[in-house]
Amino acid sequence: MGNLLENKNILIMGLRNKWSIAWGIAKAAQREGAKVLLTYQGEREYPGVKALAVDLGYAPVYRCDISSDREIDRLFTDIKKETGNLHGLVHSIAHAKREDIQNSFINTSRDGFAHAMNISAYSLLAVSRKALGMMDKGASIVTLTYMGAERVFPGYNVMGVAKAALESTVRYLAYELGGYGIRINALSAGPIKTISAKAIKDFNNIIENFGKKAPLRKLIKQEELGNAALYFLSSLSAGTTGEVMHVDCGYNIMG
After folding, report:
1. Is 156 a catalytic residue?
2. Which residue ranges make up each domain of the chain?
3. Contacts of 187 (CB under 8 A, 6+ apart)
4. How many whole angstroms separate alpha carbon 109 and alpha carbon 202?
5. CB–CB of 59/25 below 8 Å?
6. pLDDT band at 155 (very low <50, low <70, confident <90, very high)
7. pLDDT for 115
8. Residues 162, 139: Cα–Cα separation, whole Å
9. Taking the CA of residue 251 as centre, how many other CA atoms within 13 Å lie in the half-sphere pointing to its CB?
10. What is the Cα–Cα distance from 245 to 9, expressed in whole angstroms?
11. Whole-prediction pTM value?
12. Half-sphere exposure of 28 (CA within 13 A, CB side)
């Protein structure tokens, strides 16, 4: 075990199962000495997250429906009461309705567009606002994005627009949180096989082309994303905020 995050309380939001990017981050954070706290969305996710919490040495687990301000308020009230403060927060949350991913982008419904924006982008603003009162100078917030925010990936559809909003949210929050000495950054992860990725049409083709085209000629690994997150969560990134860092084996540089 290392000590990059020794005696640090790190809240990881959005863990669903062992294939989640959030799980790679959770393992890396614990390895470096952090006390990891986890959230789950609803009762369907609870058994899986609870089992992973046991693997982390019985990490505390909290319910939080990210679409409910009441549940967000309750989450941070409970954490403050039981843990005291936070040194880091990982926002690994995004969702779009399946029909808006499966259909053409031009047919995205008004409700589906609002849903994707609410869960995938506004939620970062909502949790950052509550975390602010529990964070001291030097704390860090990390969110997860994808290159579909910058370029068109057919089939990514409304989620690409939501991720673009998320990245802009990071920049505006960086300006305001910087006055408190708090950093916020985003990891732009290469495609990785998660439950959410299965909803994207032709995802297997994306994975296949990625491995061939990326300069490192390989797929990104969960552990590599976890290690990259350590940079943002630790004091190593003390001079970095408002950034989107690609962790995609170099794929983003290719034409």
Report:
1. yes
2. 9-253
3. 142, 143, 144, 145, 225, 228, 229, 232, 244, 245, 247
4. 22
5. no
6. confident
7. 98
8. 25
9. 26
10. 23
11. 0.94
12. 21
Catalytic residue among 40, 62, 146, 251: 146
Is the predicted pLDDT of residue 191 greater than 90, yes or no? no
d(CA 234, CA 25): 12
The three-class DSSP label of residue 190 is coil
List pLDDT tens digits, range 195-212.
665 556 666 767 778 888
The structure tokens listed for 118 are: 């609410």
Q: How many residues does the chain have?
A: 255
Top CATH class, 9-253: alpha beta
214 close to 191: Cβ distance less than 8 angstroms: no
pLDDT digits (tens, 9 = 90+) for 63-73: 999 999 999 99
How much is the pLDDT for 104? 93
C-alpha distances (whole Å) from 30 to each of 12, 15, 46, 131, 225 are 11, 15, 20, 20, 14
Q: Where are the alpha helices (DSSP H) in the chain?
A: 21-31, 46-55, 69-82, 98-102, 110-117, 123-132, 158-178, 203-213, 222-233
Among residues 40, 62, 156, 251, which one is catalytic?
156
Helix, strand, coil percentages (3-state) for the chain, rounded to 5, are: 50, 15, 35
Tens of pLDDT, residue by residue over 8-35, are: 999 999 999 999 999 999 999 999 999 9
Residue entry with tokens 């849903």: 115
Look at the block and give the residue holding tokens 């290469």. 190
Smallest Cα–Cα separation from 185: which of 124, 242, 111, 127?
A: 242
Distance of CA 151 to the CA centre of its chain: 20
